[in-house]
Amino acid sequence: MQALEALTRDARALANGEVVTAPEAEVARQMTICNACRYCEGFCAVFPAMTRRLEFGKADVHFLANLCHNCGACLHACQYAPPHEFAINVPQAMAQVRGQTYADYAWPPALGKLYQRNGLTLSVALAAALALFLVLAVATQGRLWGAVGAGGFYAIFPHNLLVGLFAPVFLFVVFALGMGVRRFWRDVSPATSGAPLSLPASAEATHDVLRLKYLDGGHGDGCHNDDDAYTLSRRRFHHLTFYGFLLCFAATSVATVYHYVFGWVAPYELPSLPKLLGAVGGLSLMVGTAGLWHLNRSRHPQHGDAKQKPMDLGFIALLFLTSASGLALWLGRGSAALPLLLCLHLGAVMALFATLPYGKFAHGVFRTAALLRHAVEKRQPNPIGLGAD
Question: 231 forms bridges with which residues in the sheet?
Answer without folding.
Answer: 223
